[in-house]
Specification:
With 132 residues, the protein is mostly helical. The chain has one domain (2-27, 40-131). Helix content is 77%, strand content 0%. The chain has 4 helices and no strands. It has helices spanning 2-25, 45-63, 70-109, 113-131. Keywords: Signal. Residues 1-25 form the signal peptide. Pfam families: DUF6746.
Length: 132
């Protein structure tokens, strides 16, 4: 179970870092770039995981084509905004999970059962959302 959670967390963090790197690597002039879209928002971790999962499925379907049409490239472009939104939310939530897990850790060191129980429940709720 620990390996599964670590795998998902590491995968999400790697994807978030890659997304940030791609954004910084963009050096095209504004007139050469495609229009910008907002994409689906990810207000909660559950929405982010759903958008991430569905978006990756759509991306896989698009990339399965031998050649992408201009329309498909446009769809792919719009889809990346949704995926970026999802990754940003997941990244923020994973950061919050790390803080909460540290509270569990510190509570266990000081034998503070209430601190462990409260923070442990909060951590597990978020962790289950990631792995379900």
């Amino acid at each position: 179970m620990k390996r599964t959670i670590a795998f998902f967390i590491n995968g999400f963090l790697l994807a978030a870092l890659m997304t940030g790197g791609m954004a910084m690597a963009d050096n095209h002039d504004d007139h050469e770039r495609a229009d910008h879209f907002e994409g689906k928002s990810s207000e909660t971790l559950q929405e982010a995981v759903t958008n991430f999962s569905e978006g990756n499925q759509q991306l896989a379907e698009l990339l399965a084509s031998d050649e992408l049409s201009n329309q498909q490239m446009g769809e792919l472009h719009m889809l990346t905004y949704t995926l970026e939104n999802a990754l940003q939310k997941i990244d923020a939530e994973v950061d919050a999970m790390a803080v909460t897990l540290e509270e569990v850790h510190l509570g266990s060191e000081s034998l503070d059962q209430q601190r462990v129980a409260e923070n442990g429940a909060e951590y597990l709720e978020a962790a289950r959302t990631l792995v379900e």
